[in-house]
Amino acid sequence: MNLNNAVILITGASKGIGLAMAELCLQHNAFVCMFSRSGAPIELIRQYKDRIVDIQGSIQHEDDIIRCIQTIKERFGTIDILINNAGVASFASLWDIASEDAHSMIQTNLLGLFYSVKHAFPLMKHENKPKFVVTIHSIAATTIFTQSSVYAATKSGALAMMKSFRIEARPFGISVIDVLPGATATEIWDKEFLQQNKHRMMKPEEIAQCVVSALQLSRNESDTLCIEELVLRPWTGDL
Questions:
Q1: Residues 127-157: pLDDT tens digits?
Q2: Structural domain contains residue 237
Q3: b/e string for 86-101 if b means 16 or more Cβ within 10 A?
Q4: 8 Å CB contact between 218 and 226
Q5: What is the CATH number of the domain that holds 61?
Q6: With a threshold of 0.90, does the pTM exceed it?
Q7: How far apart are the first and last CA of the chain?
Q8: Confidence class of residue 166 from pLDDT cuts 50, 70 and 90?
């Protein structure tokens, strides 16, 4: 798919992988709608003021998602690519996870994903051009780690949701790409752990480049091939 002038919605777009995705898509001349709680960086808005739509809100609040989609509908009338990136994590043994942290992971990683896809779908179906839903999951969706029980449950559930949605959405011309990254240097980690292990982690920009490459390789002129899953790990293995 050619990203030139594509309308792209990215959730959790103010930092980490989401911000790296936004910057790279803007470099490919896309229109990027950046949804996040804290808002897009001012410098980026100044640089790409005609191609950024900055929408603030919480992925946990369905009303915020509805408002976001309505804003995009009024501006563009369509969404070509939805990139579900918003996510939270709390790493501890199951009995040590605070109930509010468990609720936050479920509301963000599962329900937030559901809200985004559900309300973006009407703007994506029934157009005679390729459309994509990309979800940034985690390798924890398929690989067992200690101190990740609730987090892994939300990520494996999200992966199952998107695998089912892939089949449901295919008749409407929508393709689904699942991205399962291993350890990546983002703020999801405890600061001390990140400082100690950053040298072994992948960079958000590397994940973004892999995703953009997958989009560019999928559903081109012949509209036959689509990359459906990316598994990305540090070459030294899992942390």
A1: 788 999 999 999 999 999 999 999 999 999 9
A2: no
A3: bbbbbbeeeeebeeeb
A4: yes
A5: 3.40.50.720
A6: yes
A7: 34
A8: very high
